Amino acid sequence: MDEEKKKISFIINPKSGTQSKEQVLHLLDEKLDKTKYAKEVVYTEYAGHAVEIAAQKAKEGVHAVVAIGGDGTINEIARSLVHTKTALGIIPCGSGNGLARHLQISMEPKKAIEIINEGIIDVIDYGKINDVPFFCTCGVGFDAFVSLKFAKAGRRGPLTYLEKTLLESLKYQPETYELETEDGTLKYKAFLIACGNASQYGNNAYIAPQATLTDGLLDVTILEPFTVLDVPALSFQLFNKTIDQNSRIKTFRCQTLRIHRTKPGVVHFDGDPMMMGENIDVKVIKEGLQVIIPRYAEKDSSNVLQRAQDYINGLKQINEAIVEDIAHKNKMILDKSKEQIKKLTKI
Ligand SMILES: Nc1ncnc2c1ncn2[C@@H]1O[C@H](COP(=O)(O)OP(=O)(O)OP(=O)(O)O)[C@@H](O)[C@H]1O
């Protein structure tokens, strides 16, 4: 009887996000359609483990491998599923969940399981940055730099990310990049260059708002140097899907992109950092990955109210981080003043 059922392997990254994975497992037992599917559950034991597990599962010819984790876990699984018959499924449990949000997969595990039960499959593009696959976004500059700091911080969650972003942006210097595409070469001084297969970094931060997963093209966003006065508009537009309308932003589409920079440094792919050289080749591979998607994905699911709410939540977190930072700085100034007064009174 079980032989007739489609096999699905669920891979859990216990380190992703902050959500309880036990609760997701409990829901799986309860809600997964057992008349259609036979499930097995595997926990990752180390970074990179999901690549090996998914490769083995694809070799066995399972129907789908479902990531219970975030974009890093999805990246590891999906890179082993490209150009196979095994589909990727997602129960979002990360911090940002960029690919799941782009695909309009619910953030509620119960609803994400319903999507798996419906079993609608689409074929999407993926990208490569110097032969490293990515599925959501990759890039160089400030966002890569933040992902490196974030990885080193060891704590995962949106607030950590915002704190890091704020504090690091104060001292980050823009670099000069030469960008070569099939249409020619251009030079930019830029704060960051992001290449979108999907439209967002995660947390509904739309860095490439017009990107689609099925057009065989990269959506490139260049953020040129800006001042502190540009920050409110840029952050509003990032969450409002309109960052491409900002005067500090340049965008274009291409199939292949060579980024030439003056020195080696960090890049990010799907939010994870990696060191690369001066020349970086980015390309898109059309229709390389089967993915389980919602039956009724709307063109743009988040309505104006939802987006306003996302923006307000983002601002609230930024505010908290600023207040915390100011309080910290004030304390440092106070401590320094006390020390100076002590020294002076000793003289
Ligand atoms: N058992 C494990 N121990 C330590 N690290 C792991 C383990 N399993 C996976 N990882 C690593 O954890 C990293 C983070 O996972 P993931 O990206 O899924 O979560 P996240 O960062 O919270 O979410 P998002 O990427 O959506 O923001 C991945 O890069 C992966 O390599």
Automatic annotation (TrEMBL):
Enumerate the cofactors the protein uses.
Answer: Mg(2+)
Under the heading SMART domains, the entry gives: DAGKc (SM00046)
Name of one Pfam family that matches? DAGK_cat
Any Gene Ontology biological process: phospholipid biosynthetic process
Keyword set for this entry?
ATP-binding, Kinase, Lipid biosynthesis, Lipid metabolism, Magnesium, Metal-binding, Nucleotide-binding, Phospholipid biosynthesis, Phospholipid metabolism, Transferase
| One Gene Ontology term of the molecular function aspect | metal ion binding
Boundaries of each DAGKc domain copy?
Answer: 3-133
Cite a GO CC annotation.
Answer: plasma membrane
SUPFAM superfamilies, per database record: NAD kinase/diacylglycerol kinase-like (SSF111331)
Question: What protein is this chain from?
Answer: YegS BmrU family lipid kinase
Which organism encodes this protein?
A: Bacteroides oleiciplenus YIT 12058
Q: What is the lineage of its organism?
A: Bacteria, Pseudomonadati, Bacteroidota, Bacteroidia, Bacteroidales
